[in-house]
Amino acid sequence: MQRKRRRTVQTPAGPRWALRIGVALGIVILLPAGGLLGYGYWVFDSSRAALIGTQPLAGLSGAVELQRDSGGVPTLTAANRPDLARALGFVHGQERFFQMDLLRRAGAGELAALIGAPGLKADRERRIHRFRARAEAMLAQLSPEEHSLLDAYASGVNAGLAALHHTPWEYTLLRAAPQPWRAEDTALVTFAMYFDLQEDDASQQVAAQAEQITLGPELANFLFPKGGPDDAALDQSLLPEPPIPTGATRQGARSPAQVNDFVPGSNNFAVSGKLTDTGSAIVENDMHLAIRQPHIWFRARLRIPGSLDITGVTLPGQPFVVVGSNTHIAWAFTNSYIETGDAVIIQTLPGDPEKYQTPDGPKTFEHHAEKICLAHGDCETLDVTDTIWGPLVGKDANQKPVAWRWVAHDPNAVRTAGLLGLERAENIRAALDAAHTAGMPQQNLVVGDSAGHIAWTVIGQIPRRVGLIDQLPHDWSDGSHGWNGYLAPAEIPEIIDPANNRLWSANARMVGGAQYALFGDGFYAPPVRARAIENDLMARDHFNELDLLAIANDTRAHELDPWQPILLAVIASHASNDKFAAMRPFVTAWGGSAVPASVGYRLVREFRDEVINKIYTGLAEPVSARLGIKAPVARQANHVALRLLAARPANLLPPPFTDWDRLQAAALQSVADDADAETGGDLAKYSWGARNHTAIHHPLARAVPLLGLITDPPDIPVAGDSLVPRAVRPGVGASERIVVSPGHEEHALFDMPAGQSDNPLAPYYGAGEQIWVDGTPAPLLPGAAAWTMRLVPGG
Hints:
The protein is about 35% helix and about 20% strand. By secondary structure, the protein is an alpha+beta fold. Among the domains are: about 205-260 and about 560-590 and about 595-690, no CATH class; about 265-340 and about 415-550, 4-Layer Sandwich (Glutamine Phosphoribosylpyrophosphate, subunit 1, domain 1), CATH 3.60.20.10. It has an 11-stranded mixed β-sheet with strand order 1-29-2-3-6-7-8-9-18-19-23, covered by helices on one side. Strands 4, 5, 24, 25, 26, 27 and 28 form a 7-stranded antiparallel β-sheet that branches. The chain has a 4-stranded mixed β-sheet with strand order 16-17-10-21, with no helix packed on it. Strand 16 (about 390-395) and strand 17 (about 400-405) form a beta hairpin. Helix 1 packs across helix 2, helix 18 (about 580-590) crosses helix 19 and helix 19 (about 600-620) crosses helix 22. The longest helix is centred in the N-terminal third of the chain and has 28 residues, at about 80-110. It starts with 16 loop residues before the first helix and ends with a strand.
């Protein structure tokens, strides 16, 4: 790695400098070069972002002022939007280029070429979608304004990377060189988010098909319902509750089930100006995603004096504010889980496996050779088979080939015009209109404006689906099932200024009836968080920013309330069991909240999970046997289990249990055994915090010995659970919390679990984690300038 000539831009030292240098020098002996401590120090030091001075930046039409506060949050002030994009690209390229590189490679299926064998599995799965080729094609249909913005941003990224005195330190460890950023890479970052937020392989629809085939419709619909009485849709609609089956069920249990009630999601909610002091709406958002170091979001304020002032979070790799406020509107997202993909059963022609049937007659499969290369190693060729609907992704429950029809494959999947429209919107109507032109993963958009209005819709393009409401794979060859283009903006459901002056979304079903049919059901999240937020919003009739932050940090687990007396009854019925008896005081005083110190909360939570596991292990085993996977667990499993414990139907008693009491006792015994194994018999150590902790890591920390000593923040217990609005589990949780009233940003609140910089020697590295853990109020707007840089035309 050649050293780059130093420039006049200065980078000041930060706090805890000596400690960080010491740790950095300790780690350097593990570098492949080994031995040269000075070289290791230089790599970290020279790859830090420049913070002060004057920096020429080619392509600028005028000077851009770049101020950072003590937390590293930049305020960029420019004369026009392309200059802002170029300057933001410069900052992203200096602070987060390695993260951006991982994102574009994740979207393209090109991770192995950088990180080696650990990336092969993801590459093989993702390369099927050929997003590198699609990204290049999508650029052709962008407007000149969109093109100029992406080109300016890419140029700024590359200039920021070049201005570092050494490439980002991760490339030294990987023995690699960063490749320049290109405009299509911004589209690949969007595709990476499609992978994170939507199904890409038909697995859930195939599992639903296997449930219907192996269990029969009656039992399958009962065990895997689409809704329940606890649904919290905005229109208050409920779906019919399946009856408890009365016939015999299947026997046998070979594959264990495992509760997984944490889905990638988010919360957002808003109150109208009728419920606030200022008359302006207030909007909250906390997006639940994997939490890493460096963090997914990068805070920024973008200003064009007299015309634009946006504060929020950006996604490195893109030139926009994703969530935030522009003083006129504030907007927020949650994953919608509408049906954005469908499994298509392919009918091949007898005697000719290279042809398949379509409504327009037989077609020939297209084949694409995708080369997947290993860093410092060999390449392999992946044969991708394409149909008119999408690539083949596997087989259905009857072993027929399946293609995946996915919104991400279409030319309108990546469009920047909608996000630009949100940046400029001055009221909720303009925001909704912009949302319907956006090309991005389909999200619940909640927006409020300074006049006090609030609204909800789904942002992004919505397919017009025909005959596809049952979440199952279908044969599309006769034209009776399929997609017929996309909904027009006027057809997309909206809710504007509801009578109760409140809106909320938390990844559950939002609407019923004909609107539910329009959106389809992409396996919505359980309604537990949405119901809790609704109840919290309805509990008062006046709000300020702190009130909404309190709702975001609510740790009260109402879904577990019925389980505490059930557990106490099991303990009482086994009075001679000393391990059970030792649990009684903890369960009695459990508190009902997901706080780190509570042993009782963990006992109730683990008992509930074990009961659900044993029910689904026994009753859904035929599904796992057919698909070769663990027995599936429904997202509505909590309500199903409570119905079974209340009714105790003998025909649905999961094997090998002879009565429902023994099932519950066995579940509690599993909890006791787990507690013994973890704590050595000291039940007081079996706290919720021992299970629920932050676990924030750099992606290379587990591969490079001792690297985590520099890169990773302390792993500490944290409040929250997937069953409460404060959704947290190890390594996953609220990637940011923002509460903002447009026009009153000086009172807005914000926190996120990691800092701005990717470099451990940056003076603000890791800033903000403790605020995020504690859930304490902190301002959204950047503070006073600690460092100022001037970006000028030239270079």
